[in-house]
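Quick note —
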Amino acid sequence: MSDAVLPERRAGLLERLAAWRDRTLADPRFQRWASGFPLTRPVARRRTRALFDLCAGFVYAQTLAACVELRLFPLLRGGPRSTNSLAPDLRLDPNATERLLKAAAALDLVTARRDGRWSLGPLGAAMLGNPGVEAMVRHHAMLYRDLADPVGLLRGERRETALGSYWPYARADNPAELDRDQVADYSALMSASQHLVAEDVLDACPLDGVNRLMDVGGGDGTFLRAVAAHAATPALILFDLPPVAALARDRFAEAGLSNRAKAVGGNVFRDPLPNGADAASLIRVLHDHDDDDARAILRAVARALPPGGTLLVAEPMSGTPGGAPISDAYFGFYLLAMGSGHTRTPERLREMLTDAGFGAIRERRTRRPLMMRLLVSRRND
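Predicted structure written out below.
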């Protein structure tokens, strides 16, 4: 028997075993037996809980949304409080307050104390330390509307979506012509969640030796302001759509950075990027774009950098251990509703970087890889 036949037979056996396993797990009689047999009972219960969590996930998310909308977590910042003392501040009657608090406690957002009062839970306390998460919770009201008909969204039957209107550059024929009011809301949302991203990027790659950094798609300049606070060396250039660049100029002026940081407006698909930078960054940019546009952005950056110039690509990536619910489920549907983009594996991004003229590609470890990973590369000679 040839060596080539063995892998094929092995693969066929594995496929048959997988098919048998799937049929067995789907059999109600097996499920009933597994839930009672001592050795399989713990696994069966975990699977039952996981399946119920999938079914109830929307209710969990809406419980969090109610806590955010009613500002429950700031009310508990000062210490434990009773149901009756919270009710007037929440503008709810005591029964509704109790219902909300029990639901929040079940999700570790608050904690029920033995004396009958309520305090912050581990996740509620984390919410207070992450204002960007609160901003996303409020923002998700639009995503919920778009996902009311997920099949219609997948089939392309939803021509207009709330997220498509919120992120107008994703579908605009000429996004450079958007006005300031059309970009202000989404720029503020990105800024609210950009602080932690900036910290993680700079922890992983301190930008030692960089003289001039260009942030492409840099929004209102949150990342570059973090760079300025982190290191006194690099001069800073921001490139984004003209109305977004105007917002960034205002933020730079407010931070006293007008002499060090400049914001240039343009369309990355039509206008050349500013020259003179020896490093560039794409912070949560490529995953917002489909492949052709992402390639065009990388080529534009390569043209603007000198040989040996550094490029940082930071964004959520597929294939991250334990991160599939974020990259493939959450971002998969979010970007579909938005109208553009998808997450990519590091391997896929390496291929795209190589095709655009970058080499020496390596990954730098970040503190929160589930939310963001970082690839650093250099433009080829």
